[in-house]
Design goal:
A five-stranded mixed barrel has the order 1-2-3-5-4. Helix content is 47%, strand content 19%. The chain is globular and about 55 Å long. The chain starts with a strand and ends with a helix. It is an alpha+beta fold. Helix 4 crosses helix 6 and helix 7 crosses helix 9. It has nine helices and five strands. The protein folds into three domains: 59 residues, Nucleic acid-binding proteins (OB fold (Dihydrolipoamide Acetyltransferase, E2P), Beta Barrel); 77 residues, DNA polymerase, domain 1 (Orthogonal Bundle); 44 residues, Ubiquitin-associated (UBA) domain (Helicase, Ruva Protein, domain 3, Orthogonal Bundle).
């Protein structure tokens, strides 16, 4: 099993990168969130998941260990393969995914390419208890549950998206706000000021 690679980026062709480690080039599939965090760094550390099927051996890479952990939880769901899990992590960041599951927001999950409403509901049912018990290394994601999450965040995110912001951009703007008691309007106002 290949769990972590440190090397030099030779090529970027989303969703794939070519990472040279000790003279060997590894083709690694990464979610778009990892691509955004890579920036223009030449050297890179990736947490990896090696997936073997009858007809293919594929390496998946993640900037954060938490993303890798969530990827493994996603592929444990019956009917969710690595490519769909990668699409989910490309579409939603860690906080958005955990919030969507905790708040049973199947509409947000169904916006992911390859995920329909029934699959989104299945994800919520299978992941809800598992994600609450999940130990993540970044504590800011640790205790996201329906009772603690601000439902106005989802409304604010949707409003920012309707203004033309991408999902990741909107979530990043909202993640900077630490007050969980704000109204939807106040969240949007502060997010636009933090832009």
């Amino acid at each position: 099993m290949i769990g972590k690679l440190t090397g030099k980026i030779l090529e970027k062709n989303p969703p794939e990168i070519l990472l040279e480690v000790g003279g060997i080039g590894y083709e690694i599939l990464c979610p778009m969130s990892s691509f955004y965090e890579m920036g223009t760094e030449a050297n890179l550390v990736l947490h990896t998941h090696f997936h073997v099927k009858e007809d293919a051996q594929t390496l998946y890479g993640f900037i954060s260990k938490d993303e890798k952990t969530l990827f493994r939880e996603l592929i444990r769901v019956n009917g969710i393969g690595p490519k769909v899990a990668l699409a989910i992590l490309s579409h939603l960041n860690i906080a958005s995914l955990m919030n969507a599951v905790a708040l049973e927001d199947d509409v947000l999950l169904a916006k992911t390419p390859g995920i329909g409403k029934k699959t989104a509901q299945k994800l919520i049912v299978e992941l809800k208890d598992r994600l609450e018990k999940l130990e993540l290394s970044n504590t800011k994601y640790q205790k996201i549950t329906a009772s603690h999450a601000n439902p106005n965040l989802i409304k604010a995110s949707a409003a920012l998206q309707s203004l033309g912001f991408k999902i990741k951009e909107a979530d990043r703007m909202l993640d900077a706000i630490n007050d969980d008691s704000l109204s939807t309007e106040a969240l949007i106002r502060q997010a636009l000021q933090n832009k």
